[in-house]
Design goal:
Helices cover about 35% and strands about 20% of the residues. The chain is built from 17 helices and 19 strands. Strand 1 (about 60) and strand 2 form a beta hairpin. The longest helix has about 40 residues, at about 100-135.
């Protein structure tokens, strides 16, 4: 065999051909090493079932065949046979019989089946263990159907959905306001009237919101809240003999989320709790059930929404500043905002104003009426109107009950009032305008002068103001904790300012009043309010004899000067809350005024029946329209009328 010397490294290269020696009888050492490496790779590939021969890099002197250190191609049967002969490996066994193959297959299947059986057993044991743990930790729903079932039910767990399953459970839920005494009594309030009928030793059920819950070790502290402002502390302490029940109770209490609705049964015991409205008692918890779970992530915390602007501002320079909640996020989630004590109390004051309004007018001989809100034409000239399709015709949402109040007087209902919605399509994005509000309207026949209507209005407003301070002292105190305001000042008799006098005051204050026949601006109203407060010691006053040009068509002109009218507005804290007038009940005069204001065809404007009612005879009459939300907003000194509306509507908001 010959050898190509070019395959040797440079330092071993020689011009003479290689001569075999006793030490290297088969060729140069490098070739021998390469042959051994090829054989070792062939053996490794055989063991792994891989192809082992590839591109040749030398000639093996033993086999006279190319060898390679790289695994690139499958070896031929001849090469494998030569390798086995060289290495002394036994030839492959002969082909197995069908019986042997079947036996091997059966053995494999048996081993596989045994392996699968063991895996199933392991999985079943794990599932049983998990099920046992789940059963031990599971808190099943409960349902109270009768007093007899109490003892058989666990003292914790969510209710099955409360769906009127039974009306005879025997349980009576006690509001927190009926428990103990309030921590902070409003100035001048009757302490006896603010103390409940339940005291220490009484066992009772309370259904409330879970304002907060804190579980630590073997104890739990809950704050229960009803009616937004009434809070009671409830406590649970795990005893040594409580066992598994005590552990599950703590676990259940820890799982409850803030703002969930819970039922708690326990016994009242004396305590000193200054962080709750019930300061002298706490409830020792015996049973707790959740009627409605709140989601864990709320839009904002009620506690954050209940802070005053002053407290939030003061916290900004501390390590833990309070979050600022803007008006939009509050209105977007109004149901959460109304859970705060102040916002909730504002709506209670709104309700009180409506109630006191009714009380006063009913006492003065008025009858409550309900007028249509879908009308053919505009009810207020100069005010924007919402229109809608009415079976192919165009209808309007009533801007006021004005024409129907007057038609009621023509129907011999000589003193009427209404509490109802009012719609104004005015693109006014101010802090005191709404597109929908609640109107407090009254209309009455007068004997000689519209001052009779002013006297009725003054008695009504005085009844409202006095009633709020005396009967809703606690709500006012709650509101003023977050939104500061001074109690309202008002006079026993009507305080009436005339238009010329008002113009003189404004000129003295530096306002440009022009020809003195233009309407008042917001700044002018505030300036008049300041002067009247300083001069007459009142926050509530009336201004009459407005220019005719800025009043609606149904306003009676002044008999001594038609440039002015028998009209009036009423002001609270320097802002208008009420507009009224003696109405023009003479048909010919009405037609002339309508023509002057550009209404050529009253029938087309939907005023035909209105005028016809006067043609049949009508009592001279006067009245006024009041905005409920604006009264509440200004009486409480709030910064925006939207705080006095449950779900306000303005040019940018029609939801929620």
């Amino acid at each position: 065999s010959t050898f190509d010397q070019t395959t040797l490294p440079p330092r071993r290269r020689s011009n003479a051909p290689f001569s075999p020696s006793p030490m290297f009888p088969f060729g140069p050492p490098s070739l021998l090493l390469l042959s051994m490496l090829s054989l070792s790779r062939l053996a490794a590939g055989r063991a792994l079932g891989r192809p082992t021969f590839g591109r040749p890099t030398s000639v093996c002197p033993t086999f006279g065949r190319p060898t390679s250190a790289f695994v690139l191609a499958r070896p031929s049967a001849v090469r494998v046979a030569e390798f086995r002969r060289f290495s002394g490996e036994a030839p492959p066994p002969t082909e197995k019989t069908e019986e042997e193959k079947a036996a091997l297959k059966a053995a494999r299947e048996l081993r596989k089946a045994e392996k699968e059986r063991k895996a199933r057993e392991k999985k079943a044991k794990k599932a049983a263990r998990l099920a046992a743990e789940e059963a031990a930790n599971r808190i099943d729903p409960v349902t109270y159907l009768s007093p007899a079932c109490f003892a058989s039910l666990p003292p914790y767990g969510d209710y099955e959905t409360v769906a009127s399953r039974s009306s005879s459970t025997g349980r009576v839920f006690v509001p927190v306001s009926a428990i103990g005494c309030a921590a902070d009594l409003p100035e001048g309030a009757d302490e006896e009237g603010l103390c409940g009928s339940y005291g220490a030793g009484d066992a009772l059920w309370v259904r409330a919101r879970l304002a907060s819950v804190r579980v630590k070790g073997g104890s739990a502290f809950l704050v229960l809240r009803t009616d937004a402002a009434d809070t009671l502390q409830a406590v649970y302490f795990k005893t040594k003999d409580a066992g598994e029940t005590g552990a599950k109770m703590l676990k259940y209490l820890k799982s409850l989320t803030a703002e969930s609705v819970v039922d708690v049964y326990g016994t009242l015991s004396p305590a000193d709790v200054r962080s709750c409205s019930v300061a002298d008692l706490e409830l020792a918890v015996e049973r707790v059930h959740c009627a409605s779970r709140a989601q864990a992530q709320l839009p904002f915390q009620v506690e954050d929404a209940a802070r005053s602007a002053a407290d939030v501002d003061a916290s900004q320079d501390t390590d833990r500043p309070f979050p600022r909640l803007g008006q939009e996020i509050r209105l977007d989630h109004r149901w959460m905002d109304l859970r705060t004590p102040a916002a909730n109390a504002i709506l209670r004051i709104q309700s009180a104003v409506g109630q006191l309004f009714r009380e006063s007018l009913l006492d003065q001989g008025f009858v409550e009426i309900h007028t249509p809100k879908l009308i053919r034409g505009e009810s207020e000239s100069g005010a924007g109107v919402f229109t809608t399709d009415y079976f192919g015709a165009t209808a309007c949402l009533a801007q006021s009950p004005q024409i129907y109040k007057q038609m009621a007087v023509a129907s011999d209902l000589t003193r009427v009032f209404e509490v109802g919605p009012v719609f104004r399509a005015e693109n006014s994005n101010t802090r005191r305008h709404l597109c929908e509000f609640t109107g407090l309207d009254f209309e009455m026949a007068v004997g000689e002068h519209y001052l009779e209507a002013l006297e009725v209005a003054h008695r009504m407003f005085r009844h409202i103001f006095e009633g709020l301070e005396s009967r809703y002292a606690r709500e006012l105190a709650t509101i003023r904790t977050q939104y500061h305001s001074e109690p309202l000042k008002f006079t026993d008799e009507p305080c009436v300012l005339h238009w010329p006098e008002a113009m003189d005051i404004l000129e003295e204050r530096g306002f440009d009043v022009g020809d003195r026949l233009g309407d008042l601006t917001g700044a002018m109203e505030l300036a008049l309010g300041e002067v009247v407060r300083e001069k007459h010691r009142t926050d509530f006053f009336m201004l009459d004899r407005y220019p005719s040009a800025i009043r609606p068509f149904y306003t009676m002109p002044c008999p001594d000067d038609p440039l002015y009218s028998n009209s009036y507005d009423m002001f609270l804290r320097g802002q208008e809350i009420c507009s009224g007038a003696q109405r023009c009940h003479d048909v010919d005069m009405l037609l002339r005024i309508l023509k002057e204001k550009g209404v050529e065809d009253p029938e087309e404007a939907g005023l035909g029946p209105y005028l016809d009612s006067f043609r049949c005879g009508v009592f001279p009459h006067a009245g006024a329209g009041i905005g409920l939300e604006r009264v509440v907003f200004l009486y409480l000194g709030l910064d925006n009328v939207r705080k006095a509306s449950m779900f306000p509507r303005d040019p940018n908001r029609c939801s929620p």
